[in-house]
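User: I'm preparing a small set of examples for a lab meeting where we compare how different chains pack in three dimensions. I only have the primary sequence for this one, and I'd like the structure in token form so I can line it up with the others. Please keep the answer compact; I'll paste it straight into my notes.
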Amino acid sequence: MLSELHVRQFALIEDVQLDLGSGMTVFSGETGAGKSMLVDALGAAFGARASSDWVRHGAQKAEVVAVLEAVNDALQTLLHDNDLDADDANLTLRRVIRADGSSRAWVNGTPVAARLLQEIGQVLLDMHGQHEHQSLMRPEFQRQLLDAGIAESLKQNVAKAWQAWKKENTALQSLLDDRQRGVREEAWMREEHKRLVELELHAGLQDELQQKIEAGRHFAQIQEAVTHTLSALEDEDNDLRGKIAACSRELEAVAEFHPQISAATDLLAQVDALLGETSPALRSVLDASFDSEALEADETRLMNMHEAMRRNQCDEDGLIALLDDLEEKISHLDTGLWDEEAQRAKLKQATDNFRAQAKKLSQARQKAGVALVNALRSFLDQLALAGMQLRIDIMPQADDESVWSQYGFDEPVFMAASNPGEPFRELATVASGGEMSRLVLALKGCGAMASAPQIAIFDEVDAGIGGETAWCVGELLAEMGRMRQVLVISHLPQVAACAGRQIHIYKEQHDGRTISGLKPLDAASRLEEMARMLGGISEQSREHAAQMLARGASCTAN
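Assistant: Understood. Below is the structure token output for the 558-residue chain.
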């Protein structure tokens, strides 16, 4: 709900602050008093394209501030998506328009793009009488009106079927894309896979090859060092192990007299054991023969491994991972045709199911469209739209996947003819602002707009009507005010009488300048304004006005 509106230096409005409430509020005033300026100010608050004409002559800027209460879930989601939060369920929109036509916008004090104000307006606001703001002009809103009378389970079945079709279609496209990329890279993958397989890769291979190569390259030095060492260890003249054994026996004889001697004998025992293992180990090295071919093979394998690392810009672990990846991709290439056939079968099943579910929804829409048009007829007749002919065209496009969505494969289109015998055209090109506003009232009257935005602004709604038709318009607006906040700009006393409150828009001279103002009316001043709207203030018009207000009060009381 719009609870406050503050307008400064806006066209002829100098400084006005309005406190608004729920239900129906009517704005009335003489022609030229500034009713259109109020509509422009509301448009500015909700992101309409800025105009330098909005800035009062002589002022540097115009400002409009709108305070909203009872922020709904849809708006909370929109704010959250834009990293904004409603403060205590209130929302303050501020728009400043400079004299050069530029503008800035804020939501709860945070600077935002005017586009966000427009999105907030789409969630909260219906501004009837200006085509660019009318929800009824939007195809998605027309669909929502029609689908409101269709079983929820049917719509959910279509949405689920579409999600399943989308999933399988995406999976097939991904498979085909992978195959296409794979075909382009297949020669390289197979060649690289072959090279890596030949390397017989495993963890630690690089160090292992390097060690074997070093051993082969220094074979002669190794043999010479081993030979000399064995000769020293096994020379009978030196008899190292015999000497160590003799030392151990001599020390053991006196070990009990000193603790450190016992420790020394233990160390000599360990030395003897190590010497016993050293000779066999060295002899196995000495028994090896030099293999130049093996050395060359190891050098080539290591060189190829380093080349593969440079080629693929990775280390040893990266080569092993690349080999695994190539094996998987080549396997997919080899089995790709089987995978494609299986995926196409899944997609066909999902496609058939979606078409079947969407067809049921399309048929339900055909019936709902006829029912809605029939329900509207009596309301259109009451609202001076007896000549308007309506129909709702449902055009299934079962074979055009580009239009498929969670809502099916057709888009309902509201069509109208201004008079019987005239050709039908899209509603937006046929109905005037006033006719469109009355059509919205008719839709509300037959219960088709239960999910409409919470704030409705009607301008031109009473154009070209009077008498009982005007009463019908007022009564329907009052009925709409039970569920939504309804702001109406009207010059008809019948419509004004049905409102819960009335605000007078006036124009006066002040210090040589013309200003427009807005004044909430109490009971006495409202009676006077109603009398003026009836054609002039007199005892007779006051009496008539009192009767009309009494009739209108019954609308708001029921």
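A couple of notes for your slides: The chain is about 55% helix and 15% strand. The two ends are 22 Å apart (CA to CA).

User: Perfect, thanks.
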